Amino acid sequence: MTRRLFWVGVGVTITVVVIQRGRRLVARYTPEAVAARAEDLGRDVSRRTGTFLETFRHEFSVARESREDELVAALLAEGQPHPDDVDVRSRRGRHAAVDPEAATRADEDELGYSF
């Protein structure tokens, strides 16, 4: 008799657990719950995407500036001024009336490098 009572108790316990979990599962997949979860997921994806793009933009800018500095340093002759320090308007003014090839040669002579 105690064996039967034990198994009846196990059956009742399993039934109660299955019913409770089933109700949670049904509540989880009702249209309102699904819409709320989709909205939360959308917010999370939007936040993560924004964070990723901001981090990417910052890291890309830092790497680009670093590489630009390396390239400028490699191209400049010793003692040559940095291109940002050269007044571009004054260089163009001197060569405005000259033919383009002569202006290019003069620019190359002034800058110390050519391509």
Task: List strands and helices in order, with pairings.
Layout: H1 2-28, H2 31-75, H3 88-95, H4 100-111
Keywords: Membrane, Transmembrane, Transmembrane helix
Transmembrane segments: 6-22
Region (Disordered): 81-115
Explain what you see.
Keywords: Membrane, Transmembrane, Transmembrane helix. With 115 residues, this protein is mostly helical. It has a domain of 35 residues. The termini are far apart.
Helix content: over 70%
Which stretches of 5+ consecutive residues score pLDDT under 50?
none
> Radius of gyration over alpha carbons?
37 Å
CA-CA gap between termini: 99 Å
How would you classify the helix and strand content by structural class? mainly alpha
Oligomer state of the chains in this structure: single chain
Shape field: rod-shaped
| Count of individual beta strands | 0
Average pLDDT over all residues: 82
* Main pleated sheet: none
Helix tally?
4
SSE arrangement, N to C = HHHH
Portion in beta strands: under 5%
Task: Give a concise summary.
The protein has 115 residues and is mainly α.
